[in-house]
From TrEMBL:
Keywords: Transport
Pfam families with a match to the protein in the record: Lipocalin
InterPro entries given in the database record: Calycin (IPR012674), Fatty_acid-bd (IPR000463), ILBP (IPR031259), Lipocln_cytosolic_FA-bd_dom (IPR000566)
Residue ranges occupied by any Cytosolic fatty-acid binding proteins domain in the UniProt entry: 5-22
PANTHER family named in the record: FATTY ACID BINDING PROTEIN
Gene3D superfamilies: 2.40.128.20
Secretion signal, residue range per the UniProt entry: none
Protein name in UniProt: Fatty acid binding protein 2, intestinal
Domain of life: Eukaryota
Entry GO MF terms: lipid binding
Length: 132
């Protein structure tokens, strides 16, 4: 499927400003900007298994398109929401448990590049991953 494979972060666009808007402190923002995140995705129909590996943690997540689940970001922020597969795009809508604010994100693949776009309270950012 489109998302299957291992993806390593290549570059960021406005990611530090996005993390600042999310309330991530300066030290964690600086570390996260250089976390060498690698994502391995195994997609079977509407079901996904994602393994996130970085300098700070390894996390495995299983989810099904459209089904709500809980998730913690690397900084400890807890979210509840879902990913929905719409054609060739994964669209995520997550609500922060601490303040009820919405984080939206999309994942798309074009060639050997996966782009993850984020929006939180009017601040947009992107992370670009290359297929490993």
């Amino acid at each position: 499927m489109t998302f299957n494979g291992t993806w390593k972060v290549d570059r960021n666009d406005n990611y530090e400003k996005f993390m600042e808007q999310m309330g991530v402190n300066l030290v964690k923002r600086k570390l996260a900007a250089h976390d060498n995140l690698q994502i391995t995705v195994q997609q079977t129909g509407d079901s996904f298994h994602v393994k996130e590996t970085s300098a700070f943690r390894t996390l495995e997540i299983d989810f099904t398109s459209g089904v709500t689940f809980e998730y913690s970001l690397a900084d400890g922020t807890e979210l509840k929401g879902s990913w929905t597969l719409e054609g060739e795009t994964l669209k995520g809508s997550f609500t922060r448990k601490d303040n009820g604010k919405l984080l939206t994100t999309t994942r798309t693949v074009q060639g050997d590049e996966l782009t993850q776009s984020y929006n939180y309270e009017g601040v947009d950012a992107k992370r670009f991953y290359k297929r490993s």
